[in-house]
Amino acid sequence: MSSNAQQERRFPDDFLFGTATASYQIEGAWNVDGKGENIWDRMTHTKPHVIKDMSNGDIAANSYYNYKRDVEMMRELGLDAYRFSISWSRILPNPLAPYEVNQAGVDFYNNYINEMLKYNITPMATIYHWDLPQKLQDLGGLLNPLFPEWFEDYARVVFENFGDRVKLWITFNEPIVICYQGYGGNVKAPLLNLTDVGTYYCAKNLLLAHAKGYHAYNNDFKPAQNGECGITIGVTWYGPLTDSEEDHYAAELKRQVEWGIYAEPIFSEQGGFPKEFAEVVAQKSIEQGYKKSRLPELTEEERKFIQGSFDFFGVNHYTASLVSANEHKTVNAVPSMLDDVDVGVYTPDDWLSSATDWLKMAPNSMYNVLTHLKEKYNNPALYITENGWSQVPEAGLIDDDRIVYYRAALNSVLDSLEAGVNLKGYMAWSLMDNYEWMKGYTEPFGLYEVDFKSEAKTRTPRKSAFVYKQIVKTRVIDP
Ligand code: BGP
Question: Coiled-coil regions in this chain (predicted)?
Fold first, then answer.
């Protein structure tokens, strides 16, 4: 490669390299210092069998006490940024009384944030990463029409308390998991399994809540605090299995049902739910005897309120699948996420497998996602807010597959930057091993291994940590 070409393959100096985590997955201290119960506390305590290893996040990596070590690891990696989430029930044990703030919870995040800032690490905070206060779930959670108001009240509390120092805000992490897996299905807390409308009613309320949070920030905090507010959407790449028109259309429908339903209302110029998908649901609903579409309408006012409610698009990207309009049952078929879009979804045998059932290494998927979003939504500012790889715990510190995955993903990121994608940063999932939701501690994603058996929850860098550190430092892959 000529030295010129090498020059082009550099990450820009102001590109933010970081790692990501989430409160329930790392903090522990589940009932300490006034924290209220959340839906993950409730589910793991009352139905431990739904978790692969019957574990929970009661202690996890104990970051509530180990946060200084966490920041030390960020420094060891030379990170520019760190994405973490705030636990709603730690800040507001009584979420219906948003003025009764739990000072101990606020102190914890203040200490964490201040420790990052001491070392020039930019905090990026997710306001809601799945750990809904149980008290709100008891009132219907995201299906209660008051949810957007509850969320706005909570968001205002975090802007007020941390917005002088946190300049990158994410309202929600991965709506599909919240709405499809938690309400429409029984794959994640609160396991409601309201198959016909749960996902869609939740989606509408989530979008309104996001927009309320965004506008509250934009109108009342941004002028003084000067930060940015976006949302993180899980964007799995769905490409066509063949080049046929039918497969292209099937792939588009699959993208719409999985993430377009959240992205389109916010990021598209016209707003509203994705057109083709909305038509499919409307038609099916009528055929099924419903009075009208199971996908609720957005009023004109709601559509306008949601449309454009972003400063950036946070992308969680891990993997891809190939979509076919015709062949619904082949080897490797994964069941369609929502029956409303009945297509075949495949992952070829030769894609490298991780320790996680849904995660395989798909060629160029990062590039496909980023360039697609650029085209579709008029080149919005983007952050990769998660991307990473799991290996079985026995793999220990020598995690060569993870290194292969990160190098490929980051090469794809460089290709995307060259293609003009407005990408501002990349957060690796994850800084350290943590409680991985339904999989407990069976599929570590960490650049740092955590010894969960040890009292101290000792963290040790894996081989991948040294590779990532080198990339962050040199701004090139494999110098
Ligand atoms: C994303 C979540 C993360 C993290 C990651 C790994 O969807 O935002 O919180 O958990 O996936 O996935 P999982 O733990 O479901 O295997």
Answer: none
ipTM tops the 0.85 cut: yes
Residue 409 CA, ligand 1 centroid: distance in Å: 17
- Ligand 1 and 360: CB distance under 6 A: no
Q: For ligand 1, is residue 436 a contact (CB within 6 Å)? A: yes
Query: How many angstroms separate the alpha carbon of residue 21 from the centre of ligand 1?
Result: 9
Q: Is the CB of 172 under 6 A from ligand 1?
A: no
Mean pLDDT of the region 447-461: 98
How far does residue 24's CA lie from ligand 1's centre (Å)?
12
Does the CB atom of residue 437 touch ligand 1 within 6 A?
A: yes
Is residue 265, in this structure, part of any structural domain at all?
Answer: yes
**Distance between CA 375 and CA 436 in Å, rounded?**
33
CATH number at residue 60: 3.20.20.80
Position with higher pLDDT, 313 vs 326: 313
Per DSSP (E only), the strands in 59-175 are 81-85, 122-128, 168-173
Domain count, the chain: 1
Q: How many CB atoms are located within 10 Å of the residue 350 CB?
A: 8
Give the pLDDT of residue 177: 97
**126 CB contacts (<8 Å, ≥6 apart)?**
22, 83, 84, 85, 86, 170, 172, 173, 232, 385
Q: Whose CA is nearest to atom 6 of ligand 1?
A: 436
pLDDT at position 338: 61
Any idea which residues carry the catalytic annotation?
174, 386
Q: What is the pLDDT at residue 326?
A: 82
Q: What confidence tier does 349 reach under pLDDT thresholds 50, 70, 90? A: very high
Give the residue numbers spanning the domain of 172.
3-474
Mean pLDDT calculated for residue range 179-202: 94
Q: Is 403 in the pocket of ligand 1 (CB under 6 A)?
A: no
Backbone torsions φ then ψ of 427, nearest 5 degrees: -110, 120
Atom of ligand 1 nearest to the CA of 177: 7
Using CA atoms of 320, 322, 323, 326 in order, give the dihedral in degrees to the nearest 10: -160
Residue 420 lies in a domain: yes
Q: Is residue 51 part of a domain?
A: yes
C-alpha 1 – ligand 1 centre gap (Å): 37
What confidence score (pLDDT) does residue 336 get? 35
Write down the pTM of the prediction.
0.97
The tokens for 345 are 């979804």
Q: Is residue 479 part of a domain?
A: no
